[in-house]
Amino acid sequence: TYFGIAGAAEKVRLALAMCDKTFEDERIDFQDWGALKETMPYGQLPVMNVTNEKSGEKQLFTQSSAMLRWVVQKFDYTGKLYSTERMMKIEEVIGLSDDMAKAWMPCLYLSMRHEIFGYPKEWPEKAEVVQSMREKFLANDLPRFMNYYSDALEKSGGDFFTGEDVTIADLQILPQLKYFTLGVADHVPADCLKAYPTV
């Protein structure tokens, strides 16, 4: 269960698809979230409802990274999505992806909920500050991480981040990079990754 966007749930959806596991993809409207928030563990999404096929017992899972690893541990019979042999490299690349997400988060949330950063509700400079932060991200952070990603791909010896096979590292990074090409974030042009053909 998640909003009608890729966001944090997409890597889990991709893992389920890669494992050829059918699932109900429940999307909720942002306008309905206020009423649902208090009913969710930790007050956040995504969540994953799992029914035990034998006992019928239902469990509610939270935290997208935990869901991702659970799905591949349980349903990836090839053992390639989270290979024991490549685990350290997989986790290293995921950590790099997490670092990029952390670098972007202030640029995102300042435009949505600036008050959590200590700014007053009425803040005339908001649009100007958000634009400045996003432009600095594009000028500094994005090239840095794209160079890291390009280097990792070139050294992997395959088409994916840790070699010839898709892993959960690729499933996490794919929606992350796709977001930056959609043109949905103000001041972030859809061709911002054009300079990085390896990625």
Describe this structure in words.
The chain has 199 residues and is mainly α. It has six helices and four strands. It has helices at residues 10-18, 30-37, 64-75, 87-112, 126-156, 168-179; strands spanning 2-3, 27-28, 47-51, 58-62. The strands form two sheets. It has a two-stranded parallel sheet. Strands 3-4 form a two-stranded antiparallel sheet. Helix 1 links the parallel strand 1 (2-3) and strand 2. Helix 1 (10-18) runs parallel beside helix 3, helix 1 packs across helix 6 and helix 4 (87-112) packs antiparallel against helix 5 (126-156). The longest helix is centred in the C-terminal third of the chain and has 31 residues, at 126-156. It is flat. The two termini are 29 Å apart. The mean pLDDT is 96.
What can be said about this structure in brief?
With 199 residues, the chain is mainly α. Helices cover 49% and strands 7% of the residues.
What structural class do you assign from the helix and strand content?
Answer: mainly alpha
| Helix/strand order, N-terminal first | EHEHEEHHHH
Question: What's the quaternary structure here?
Answer: single chain
Determine the fraction of residues in helical runs and give it as a percent range. Answer: 40-55%
